[in-house]
Give the backbone structure.
Amino acid sequence: MTGKSDTLVAWDDVLASYDPALGLEVHVELNTVTKMFCGCPTEFGAEPNSQVCPVCLGLPGAMPVVNRKAVESAIRIGLALNCEIAEWCRFARKNYFYPDMPKNFQTSQYDEPIAFEGYMDVMVEGEIHRVEIERAHMEEDTGKSLHVGGATGRIHGADYSLVDYNRAGIPLIEIVTKPIMGSREKAPLIAKAYVAQLRELIVALGVSDARMDQGSIRADVNLSLAPVGTGALGTRTETKNVNSLRSVERAVRYEMQRHAAVLDSGKAIFQETRHWHEDTGVTTSGREKSDADDYRYFPEPDLVPVAPSRAWVEELSGTLPENPREKLDRLQADWGFSDLEMRDTVGAGALGLVEETIAAGAAPQAARKWWLSEMARRANDSGVDIAELGVSPAQVAAVQALVDAKTINDKLARQVFDGLLAGEGTPEEIVAARGLAVVSDDGALGAAVDIAIAANPDVADKIRDGKHAAAGALIGVVMKEMRGQADAGRVRELILEKLS
């Protein structure tokens, strides 16, 4: 089974009785050429177990060496999140057993992270919410287990399992927030907005492609409830590896309703990890959640401490992208968007998409129109994030260029998007193959206008009497006759010419 639905409490009833405390742990897979502690390549999609060596396989006697570029990326991420950068920090061994972790421990950072005490301001429904960052630390990724057979892709019900260690040792930065309190009904939206803005920041820094669909950025959602007004922290659960912005919002909302049902029944919340099921929109129990003591952390004896000089940190601070808040204000001014238009663009997770579409040549309002209407609708129907729909900003700009050139109109453009999603080629190729070009030839248009006038004499008489607004009815008839491919402006001109 892909997840059995729990008993849930109605949303309004949750808010009437409980306050949520939210925490997010985001893992960012860095785009370094080699792994965190060895020289193995990090290319995504290589043949299983083809990018491994004695170090990342944890073989006896193999000695790790820290990747300088990964340290640099960690510092830049920390600086961009307004963190303090440690003058001295070190790695630790996080001990636990899992089949895809060849050393039976993960080389991570524990009590001495490279970056700490930061924040990020995010906008939700026109209001700024500050998300405080507890730490951003360096670690290595684990391998990947593939469970073959069964219906869920998980180990339960599988016929057998395979392990690919290519990912073992890939550099990760884990960014951990402090508990987000007082968010109330906005908790799901704040979680989504935070991960969305963090992803945009990571891409702007150039340290990762931050593709959630490929796992290069993954979010773990920690949630607890406490009686309303107490300001307390309840027992938390951690929903692991939520891999889309839409799912971050849905997972927070689901867990709030599930926690409330458990607490209302008089039972206690079990501290555990949970699995998110994208298809059914529910979480299911994973394993008991370990505390730090259970991992038996101790300093990594095979690695020297990391002590970035203040001069290096200062140098890296000069490489940071524009502040997200300042960038938002600048873009709004450049694009001429109202506060509501900008808020909706940010809320839809479409800011970067609109920005790229404009950069590719589309006018700001046109770019916004396509992403927040047509693309958002299609993404919602498909149950995916708008960025994962399969249409690129460059393609949207190319479609709009065809509209601007009057090759197609907005209605025909929607059919071009159908073709893009079906993989039928470029917008120009789709227009040609589907025969979608707008008809501007006076001969064909004139014949269609004559037919419309003859079929609607009452409307024609109104136009002859000077009621030119009635021409819209005849234009609609012509457009229907020509399957939406008539040049509506020229049709109107011909109607008025014939009836004046």
Q: What stands out?
A: The chain has a mean pLDDT of 90.
